[in-house]
Amino acid sequence: MSNSEDKPPKRDVESPATDTPTPAVETGTGFGVAPITRIWRREDMLNRGSLALRGLALLFSLLAFIIMASNKHGDWKIFDKYEEYRYLLAIAMLSTLYTAGQTLRHVHELSTRKQMLEKRTSAMVDFFGDQIVAYLLVSSCSSAVPLTNRMREGADNIFTDSSAAAISMGFFAFISLALSALISGYKLSTQSYI
Question: Which parts form a coiled-coil structure per UniProt (predicted)?
Answer without folding.
Answer: none
